[in-house]
Design a protein that fits this description.
Distance between the termini: 33 Å
CATH architecture: Sandwich
Largest sheet: 8 strands, antiparallel
Structural class: alpha+beta
CATH class: Mainly Beta
Number of domains: 1
Helix content: 25-40%
Strand content: 15-25%
Length: 321
């Protein structure tokens, strides 16, 4: 994540003038979830699971932040609300906050949280190397009853969804996921059918700083709107598999629709360049030329495919159900 620790910042982003300094010893209160469910529990078969780095689907609710940490994050997110944007799925969100808040950046890059999330997911993770996939913030729409976010799967594999505001202080605003496959959800949409209410899970969040972890591109989820006036903010932080041999899953066609064109393409290109470099580094110092030749050819194949993807991506719509 050297790009976040250097002067490599898109134009138009400035650091907050006033914010706390992230301190893991004061701001974290990591508590393991009581339950972890698998993709098999959601009805996925072996073929789908084989395409994923692990069979992890979703966790029970767990704590991430201390009371002080939650209060600091809330202060930062309220400041970042001045930089919200909207798209066809979400009316008010802030992306790229790690270019504006050092507190948010350091929390999203925290090795302690990364190791904790790796244990939950059952695979070694690292913070996402696309900066706009770190610390994504969702704010409630101004219109009561309007969903914060529609039913969807994510443009990345692993992320946790954490409440920044107190979910018990508002009416509505539930985070929900569908206990089933994305294929079933696509069928419901195609046939114009309602999602069965007994398969919609609304995890109870005890307070701010609590979260769930998910394999977001496999678990269909949404965020309900508020039914009475109030404030609802959640944060989503993304991860990629640490093993560079694991194929990446990032939806460039979707990122282009929600992020500025220069940011989306530059971050995506850098992301894959870093993956290619990690593929080379991962081998270490070995004398067998065949290892390096194979890795270089694989890196070249991947980079060529990414170049083709960027060149060929046309006009699409934001995916949701």
């Amino acid at each position: 994540m050297d790009d976040l620790q250097s002067n490599y910042t898109p134009s138009g982003f400035e650091w907050l003038a006033r914010e706390p300094e992230f301190n893991p010893s004061k701001h974290l209160a990591l508590e393991a979830p009581a339950l972890v469910e698998t993709l098999y529990d959601f009805g996925y078969g072996q073929d789908d699971v084989a395409q994923c780095p692990s069979d992890f689907a979703v966790s029970a609710v767990f704590r991430v932040l201390s009371d002080e940490g939650a209060a600091c994050l809330l202060d930062v997110c309220r400041q970042l609300s001045a930089h919200t944007s909207s798209n066809a799925r979400i009316e008010r969100n802030c992306r790229g906050g790690v270019y504006r808040s050092r507190f948010l950046r350091d929390m999203c890059l925290s090795p302690d949280i990364k190791d904790f999330m790796s244990q939950i997911a059952g695979v070694a993770l690292m913070p996402h190397t696309i900066s706009h996939q770190l610390g994504h913030l969702n704010y409630n729409p101004h219109q009561l009853g309007k969903n914060v976010d529609k039913w969807h799967v994510d443009t990345l594999r692993y992320d946790y969804v954490m409440f920044v505001t107190d979910p018990k202080a508002v009416v509505g605003g539930e985070f929900q996921y569908f206990k089933g496959t994305k294929h079933e959800m696509a069928d419901f949409k195609r046939l114009g059918q309602e999602v069965p209410s007994d398969r919609i899970i609304s995890p109870e969040m005890p307070g701010p700083g609590y979260a769930i972890m998910q394999q977001g591109n496999m678990v269909v989820h949404q965020a309900k709107g508020l039914r009475a006036s109030g404030e609802r903010i959640t944060m989503v932080n993304g991860y990629v598999a640490a093993d560079a041999l694991i194929e990446d899953f990032t939806r460039y066609d979707q990122l282009k629709l929600v992020d500025p064109a220069d940011v989306a393409t530059t971050e995506y290109a850098r992301h894959h360049a870093q993956l290619a470099m990690r593929l080379i580094d991962q081998a270490g110092f070995v004398a067998d030329d065949k290892v390096h030749i194979a890795n270089l050819r694989e890196a070249a194949r991947r980079l060529a495919a990414v170049a083709d993807e960027i060149e060929q991506t046309g006009d699409v719509e934001i995916d949701h159900y």
